[in-house]
Specification:
Blueprint lengths: L17 H10 L2 H12 L6 H8 L3 H14 L24 H10 L1 H14 L5 H12 L5 H19 L7 H13 L5 H24 L9 H12 L4 H15 L4 H13 L5 H7 L25 H14 L1
Helix pairs in contact: 2-4, 3-4, 5-6, 6-8, 7-9, 8-9, 8-10, 12-13, 12-15
Length: about 325
Amino acid sequence: MDDRRYRLSGERSLAVPLADADALLAACDGTAALLYLYALRSGGDFTVRAAAGALKRTDAEIEKALQKLCSLGVFSAGAACASSAPQPAEELPEYTAEDIALRVNENGEFRAVVEETQRILGRTLTGADLKTLFGVYDYLRLPAEVIFLLINHCVEETRERLGPGKLPSMRAIEKEAYVWYNREILTFERAEDYLVKEKARRGELADMRRLLQIRDRDFSATERKYVESWLDMGFPYESIAIAYDKTVLKTGKLTWKYIDSILQSWNRKGLHTPEEIAGGDGQPRMNRGQAPAISPAAQADKPRDDTALLRKLLDRSKNS
């Protein structure tokens, strides 16, 4: 056993309160101890970005150490220790190839993220890919397990849209990462909940494309916003079919602004179901005992003729 004694060289000019020293030693957290010394040396005035650069750590590691120091009571409760929602991101910072290589070698977690991403995508990441992936990890501060869910989600969505074997670009993964960041999907649990809801929503959107006679293509971004707003307002498929029928009769085609104006008007009046619309729109109500309309989702396992489905919905609406 080495019994040699060691001493600090040079002048000792920084004073560490004994209580703080005891707390840091008990925590056994090297990054937290480094951050404490950096804060002490900086007079208590520093930014996460500056600390990360000086200590050769990621923003995520500095944030974690900061919260550790707050929990230990070493940092006073205030702006630094407040748990606030993340600020909206604008764009990823520029990272150098040297910085990425250094972090890959030093940071075991990010190295695991790189290896798993390459496994999922089935290829070696380029330098540009690594910079983007590191930005998602370091700047957006998505945990490793959330990044894995994100990438698998992007792969699944791309293959559904473009066919088997297709893979998302790193740019597409970055865009989806911003969506998750701005929606504060920053934990494994929130990511899982989001993915369950997204899967259900994709099924609803597929039914809506059939209902609106849109084939061989997906909704555009604007069209999807319209459809999602109608579903979020609580309109069932049958009610949207009524608004679609009114729009086609009036304009001769699917006019998005016109159908939206109809549904917005009904929503303001609190009319959502076909029965409510019939009563509030000056039309006779559905006959008592009449069988309820069947939603497209309920017929998913049966062969269907899309035109017949829409006509059935419209006929029921007109006869109500």
